[in-house]
Write a structure and sequence with these properties.
Layout lengths: L4 H10 L3 E8 L4 H12 L6 E7 L6 E3 L5 H8 L15 H16 L3 E4 L5 E3 L19 E2 L2 E6 L6 E4 L3 E2 L5 E4 L6 H11 L4 E7 L3 H8 L8 H9 L4 E5 L2 E5 L4 E7 L5 E3 L13 E14 L4 E3 L8 H20 L3 E5 L9 E6 L6 H9 L10 E5 L8 H10 L3 H4 E8 L12 E8 L21 H14 L1
Parallel strand pairs: 1-2, 3-17, 4-12, 19-20, 20-22
Antiparallel strand pairs: 2-3, 5-16, 6-9, 7-8, 7-11, 10-16, 11-14, 12-13, 14-16, 15-16, 18-19, 21-22
Helix pairs in contact: 6-7
């Protein structure tokens, strides 16, 4: 069982998915450059890197911890999350499936324990952490993999998310809460009540908790409960006074506060869009307590144009939650967010087309699903198109789309705050593209031509000849 970050690093070593870098490296760009070389060499199956000699620090740095899709699949498997949504319809197997899901949810309920100070050493400054400068034109160093925990001042619900934290000095960082994120919602609630928001930041945990902090978890399931479901055991949480609970296996814990009325200029920073973000005013985090586990390991991510760790995580999570999306809308057979489309900007949907307009129905449904609501370009395809194959997608767009009939512009819609093409931040237009073959019910009265496909019996007869020739 993987109980913490150190166990996970050992696990990666046993899987031959860990490279130890023993030479001296700087946190200023050099860790990024080496990680970037690894990811360029191996897409979707990179090794984690453990930098053992970091200049100016006695704390090793681990990067690319989730750079292998194979490792994520081994850790999480498939089907666990769908157990929670196995609605019984009368079939005994589905009833058992639903009951199994309910038991998983009960068993995964987090357990709070007292903060064990003996496990930790108190630090004086955030500057004691080997925080990276990632890209040359970044405004400075930022904590790249913090699990930021907030509690709603209204209903007490916990949110765990990963948000950029630019280091201003030893006690102060930015808190890059985009308006659509859970942490920002809690900050708005606190601002309405004219209260400060207590915030806890955990850095370094087991892989299930870390992935849970970035996963698009359905409403009603906490990130800690998700981690328990995926791990197969309850999450243990430290309760430490007025601060929200953090994972009890954290390498670092920073407790502090955010005054929702306070802002400070943050950025620019290189982002997954391939561009530097625009410098803007953001929330400010004031550290009040800083703890480090004895002989800690500092985890960090490199975020940039694909292919980096974030692209691997994004693709995995998309596949992992795909069954839930299909359960919610039976028109959708598959959904794919290409990394080159910055995930939130472009979405391809494979649809089961049974009646006129079903492709548009599926696209509108996708716009109602969580963060997919910020997608800028959505295209729907027939069942015979492999939406994960760029060639197939381009062929369908080129041969099944009449722009006047099949493209629909939606103006004045919420968008991704990282999309720099719009005239206003997080507000612009969307386009829906129906790349399916049209039917008479959709006003198409020509005969649709047959697709060229070789006779299957002929293929069977010649396969042996072809293999022998190779």
């Amino acid at each position: 069982m993987i109980s913490d970050l150190r166990d996970y690093i050992k696990y990666l070593g046993n899987k031959r998915k860990l490279a130890r870098i023993s030479g001296s490296v700087s946190t200023d760009l050099e860790v990024t450059a080496i990680t970037d070389l690894e990811n360029r060499a191996v897409r979707y199956d990179g090794r984690a890197l453990l930098f053992e000699d970091v200049e100016g620090y006695d704390i090793p740095v681990a990067t690319n911890l989730f750079g292998s899709a194979m490792i994520l699949q081994d850790l999480f498997g498939s089907g666990k999350i769908t157990e929670l949504f196995g609605l019984a319809t009368g079939d005994s197997r589905e009833i058992l499936h639903a009951l199994k899901g309910a038991k998983s949810l009960i068993d995964s309920k987090p357990k709070s324990i007292g903060f064990e100070k003996g496990m930790y050493e108190k630090l004086k400054s955030i500057e004691e952490l080997p925080v990276l400068k990632v890209w040359p034109n970044d405004a400075g160093r930022f904590i790249t993999q913090p699990m930021v925990v907030t509690r709603s001042p209204i209903d007490g619900r916990i949110n765990v998310g990963v948000y950029r934290m630019q280091v201003y000095d030893g006690e102060t960082t930015g808190m890059h809460w985009q308006a659509q994120k859970g942490g920002a919602y809690h900050a708005l609630e606190a601002e309405e009540r004219k209260e400060e928001l207590k915030v806890a930041v955990a850095i370094g945990s087991d892989p299930y908790t870390t992935i849970g902090a970035v996963a698009p978890i359905p409403k009603g399931i906490s990130e800690y409960a998700f981690a328990g479901i995926a791990r197969g055991s309850r999450s243990l949480l430290f309760e430490n006074g007025a601060y929200p609970p953090v994972p009890a296996n954290s390498e670092f814990i920073i407790n502090g506060r955010v005054d929702p009325a306070e802002r400070r200029l943050e950025g620019p920073f290189g982002d997954h869009t391939g561009y530097y973000s625009i410098a803007e005013e953001t929330y400010v985090f004031h550290a009040e307590e800083i703890y480090a586990k004895k002989k800690p390991v500092y985890p960090a991510s490199v975020v940039g144009f694909p292919w980096h760790e974030d692209a691997v995580i994004g693709r995995f999570l998309m596949d992992y939650f795909n069954p839930i999306i299909r359960m919610m809308n039976d028109s959708i057979l598959d959904i794919y967010l290409p990394p080159e489309g910055s995930f939130t900007n472009t979405c391809f949907i494979k649809v089961k087309k049974r009646f006129p307009g079903e492709a548009k129905k599926a696209m509108f449904a996708a716009l109602g699903l969580g963060q997919l609501s910020f997608t800028k370009i959505i295209a729907a395809f027939d069942e015979d198109i492999d939406i994960r194959d760029f060639g197939s997608v381009v062929w369908a767009l080129s041969t099944r789309v009449d722009p006047d009939r099949d493209m629909q512009i939606i103006k004045g819609a919420a968008g991704d705050s990282l999309d720099h093409s719009t005239g206003m931040p997080a507000y612009g237009s969307k386009v829906l593209i129906d790349a399916t073959r049209k039917t008479p019910g959709e006003g198409y009265h020509r005969k649709w031509p047959d697709t060229i496909v070789m006779d299957s019996e002929v293929v069977k007869r010649v396969e042996k000849l072809w293999k022998a020739a190779r």
